[in-house]
Amino acid sequence: MTTPYIAGHSRVVMALLLGTICTVAVQAQDAETDVRAFLQQRDRDIKAAIAGLNNDPSQEEHVRSLVNDRIDFREMGRRALGDHDATLTEEQRSRYIDTFSAIVRVQSLSDLTVYNAKVTFGEVAVSGGTARVYTHAEVDGAQVPVEYVLHDKDGEWWLYDIILDGVGTIEGYAVSFQSVIRKRGFDHLMASLDRKLRRIESGN
Question: Regarding predicted confidence, which is higher, 5 or 181?
């Protein structure tokens, strides 16, 4: 026989559990809304800025900022190095991230087609502080799947990987960077990145 105290206590516990579950669900929905709104606004801002380039080429740096300023290059670079990142000193890591991010920024406007493509936003999946957004971009009449991976950093959502038609940005860099480090070492990788940065900055 259940005593009134035990029955009452069970009801309180159940109410607290339901309240917690409801709170978590609401927070997840809020996060999904925030992530979707951020990416949709980013898409509109970039398209508007690109449209203005035809009349004012000096706006190129503005477009570059819109494309890159909410990308977490430190996280992207860290993941590209994989386990090798843990072997670096903070000075090495800082130099690597600075050079890596500079290369990505300079190259980011080499092909504006993907930024001008019509984007259809699909599912937004949030788990803890990470979000994945599934979209399709219409490129040359074809629907190309594009997945955005973000994380919550100091209360804001930051991109750190973009997976285009099944191939991730991090994955592409990781194959190259980690192979060079295994065969030739980190210093050789940095020398290669420094040369590449000088070359693309000079337009060669």
Answer: 181
pLDDT digits (tens, 9 = 90+) for 117-150: 999 999 999 998 999 999 999 988 899 999 999 9
28 burial type by CB count under 10 A (0-12 exposed, 13-18 middle, 19+ buried): middle
The CA distance from 80 to 180, in Å, is: 12
For residue 110, report the phi and psi dihedrals to the nearest 5 degrees.
-65, -25
Q: Is 200 exposed, middle or buried (0-12, 13-18, 19+ CB in 10 A)?
A: middle
Report field, pTM of the whole predicted structure over 0.85: no
Distance CA 146, CA 119 (A): 9
Q: Exposed, middle or buried: residue 135 (CB in 10 Å: 0-12, 13-18, 19+)?
A: buried
Q: DSSP letters along the chain, please?
A: ---HHHHHHHHHHHHHHHHHHHHHHHHHHHHHHHHHHHHHHHHHHHHHHHHHHTT-GGGHHHHHHHHHTTB-HHHHHHHHHGGGGGGS-HHHHHHHHHHHHHHHHHHTTS--HHHHSEEEEEEEEEETTEEEEEEEEEETTEEEEEEEEEEEETTEEEEEEEEETTEEHHHHHHHHHHHHHHHH-HHHHHHHHHHHHHHHHTT-
Tokens of 170: 């991090």
Quote the tokens at residue 106.
Answer: 């300079």
